[in-house]
Every structure is written in C-alpha cells, then in structure tokens.
Sequence to fold (305 residues):
Amino acid sequence: MGTDAIFRLASMTKPIVSVAAMTLVEGGKLFLGDPVSEYLPQFADMKVAVETRDSRTGAATLVLEPASTPVTVQDVLRHTAGMVNPGLQPITPVRKRYIDAGVNDEDQTLAERVDKIARMPLAHHPGTVWDYSHGVDVTGRFIEVISGMSLDRFVAQNATGPLHMADTGYHVSEDSWNRIAQPMADPTTGKLPDQPDVRHPPKLFSGNSGMAGTAADYLRFSQMLLNGGVLDDVRILGTGTVAHMTSDPLGPISRNTARSRDGSSCSALSCTNQSPSERRFFRGHLHPYAASSATGWRAPFAAFR
Fold:
C-alpha cells in the first residue's frame, strides 16, 4: 500500500462536515441556540417516545409525549437532540422505527433521509441525554438549505478545497481507483466485508459518513484544527471558535448510552473517548476516536455552549 492510498473515511466524515457547518455559524447564517425548525420546519412539534409496561403482562407500549423543549442546532451538533442511530445495538423501539422507515437506506437523497428523521419520535427529551445519532445528517441538511448548495459542493468549497485536500471527497475519480484501499478477506469465509462503493458520486451526500481521502489529507485537516483554525495562512475557522469547540459541551448531561459506554464514542463536534464515570474531557488536548474501524486523532470537539 502506498502513502497515497485512499481510505473510506466512515465516521471521520463527521468532523469535516461539522467544521463546514461552523463556517456558517461564524458567518452569522446559522445560530446554535436556534430551534432546528427555524431552518427545517418539519422538526417543529417533535414528540418523545416513552416506553411503558403493563404491570400484569409486562407488555411494552410506546406513548408519545411533546418534547419538553425544542431541538436546537447545538443539540444536533453534540448528539443531544434525542435522535438515534438505527445501526447500533440494542434495537430499541425507537431504533426499530428508524429501521422500518428506511432511514439508513443509501438509495435516497440527504433531504429525503432528514425528512424521515423528522417523522421519527425522539428517544430522549432534547438536551438531556447524549446518544450517538444521525445528528450530523441534519447538520448537513442545514448546510444545503442555508447555502443553496449540495453538501459535497459546500464542503469542497469551504473546507477540503481551501485546505488543498485534493484526494478527499464523496467519490474517487476514475484515474485514482487503483489507489482505493481494500479490506482483507475474512479468513473463515474468504469473503470481503461489505464496503461503500466510493468510485462514483453517491445519491446520498451524508454528514455522518461517506467521504474518502488519504491519510495525508486528513493530517492537513487535523493540523488546521491544532493550529486554531488555520493552515498555510488559510483560515477556515477563528481561533476562538476552535477553542470553544475543544471544551466539554455536555456538563451534567447524561452519557449513559451504549455508545458512550463502549469507550470510543465520537459525535459531531464532541467526542467522549472514555467511559462516563471517568469524565475525562481534556480541554484543548487530543485523544483518539474510532467508528466503523476508522480511527484518527483529534481534539474533543464540542459545539458552543
């Protein structure tokens, strides 16, 4: 494998898309304290699914109640909106609804996915529980609606392009297909694991995953953040923005979910790499994060508090 090998970035897409969204915050076009419905009206009047059990039979029933507060832009950035990720375990009643609705289907646009998410009940009241979710897809849809551009174009124009991340994007050009890194076959079956096809532009430009790029490109992105938002005299974000992003955004908010207990939980602009009991959010420092076997190093990003 050469040093110019191109990898599927999986959840390492999230920080890139989130940084792109924060350029809109700095430009005064997106406000973290605003209800999501200010930009995406379909998220007004969200309901929370509360599970109740019959005391005699033990049968579970979902009861929908109004959300105690509106879902905010900050909530989707830090995974406290009450949304879930249907690809995780266990399959809770709300995750089952996501699955039945086809939220994870790839044969749809980002707008179609986000519309489905808006029709789903929340698993928690907004701002009360950290739960790894499709929040960055909603963030990506903010970008599209506000900018009038597709997510891939906005990210290229405002993040990867200015940073000269020439090999990073939502698909790999044909002349570079031979550089795409491939996984090893399963020794027990001889089969390759399923992988996204990054050779062609996808129908779905997801904020959660889907980009591909080289290690050298991602190093440039990471170095920009370490430098406080600038690289090679190109400023992507203000120093104050990055400093605030590298602070703990959760405070007393519960992290008691399966994804946060596994010790490697990465969110849009926040990252919990330790168990909740350790509460180890090192302000301004770096720690590893991983999702879908994609691993990197970055600061513990957090949305503005």
Q: What stands out?
A: The two ends are 42 Å apart (CA to CA). Strands lie at 6-8, 47-53, 60-66, 212-214, 230-231, 234-235, 265-266, 271-272, 287-291, 294-298. Residues 260-268, 271-293, 297-305 have pLDDT under 50 and may be disordered.
